[in-house]
Amino acid sequence: MRLDLNPRYPVKFLPLIASLAVVLGLGSALAQETANANYRISASDRIAISVHQEDELCVERAVANNGMVTLPLIEEIRVAGKTAREAEKAIEAAYRDERFLRHPQVTVTVAQFVERSISVLGAVNKPGTVVIPGGQVQIDLMTAIANAGDFKQIANKKKVRITRKNGKIIEINAEDIISGKSKPVVLFPGDIVSVKQRWI
Q1: What is the DSSP letter of 190?
Q2: What is the structure's pLDDT at 200?
Q3: Mind listing the pLDDT tens digit for each residue in 156-184?
Q4: Is residue 78 pLDDT above 90, yes or no?
Q5: Residue 186 belongs to a domain
Q6: How far apart are CA 176 and CA 167, in angstroms?
Q7: 3-state SS class at 41
Q8: Where residue 88 sits, what CATH number does that domain have?
């Protein structure tokens, strides 16, 4: 957050403004941490597994297409569909149940997220693939269009078509979203956005 040190702000208020900036920054970081905590591991993600005081068991693995990872002493264990915390519990249980470790303490982090994307085509400045930020499984329609270079001048913002991965087609009036008349629309991996152009 940029602090405006304009004289209209009395000096006595500067500590308060600085504190507010810190709080806002922490709030943003906390929101991102919460999103990552709720993230569910997917095939092709790379995860780092750390076992407390067991260096030989600390590894980094890619999640296979079947959702499994192979770990030292454990042949395979399913982690896809689990949060990092749930994966930790499953791995701890596996080491404990097989009597390899009495009180395992496991930490799982996603080292690299699998790339997820949608397509934005038609009357935008940079049509093509738009990558969804790492750790997220959806993206806002208007954010996706902005990442595709925004609407061209000839774009018909009232005629935006979304084709879902399952084949369902939705017609969106983006002008209503921009003006606040309609709620934001969320896109998911594999969705295709088509922006039509106006007749001139």
Answers
A1: T
A2: 62
A3: 999 999 999 899 999 999 999 999 999 99
A4: yes
A5: yes
A6: 24
A7: coil
A8: 3.30.1950.10
CATH number, domain of 191, equals: 3.10.560.10
Residue 109 in tokens = 């982090």
5-46: pLDDT as tens digits: 444 445 454 455 445 444 444 444 434 444 467 889 999 999
Higher pLDDT: 23 or 155? It is 155
DSSP 106: E
> Phi, psi at residue 194, to the nearest 5°?
-120, 120
Looking up tokens 């404990």 gives 96
Domain that holds residue 144: 116-197
The closest of 158, 133, 157 to 144, measured between CA atoms, is 133
Number of domains in the chain: 2
**Lowest pLDDT segment from 3-7, 142-146, 191-195:** 3-7
184 shares a domain with 146: yes
Sheet strands side by side (includes 59-62): 59-62, 46-51, 106-112
Between 32 and 80, residue with greater pLDDT:
80
d(CA 133, CA 124): 20
Query: Which of 104, 146, 148, 156 is closest to 128 using CA atoms?
Result: 148
Residue type, 180: G
Cα(73)–Cα(154) distance, integer angstroms:
61
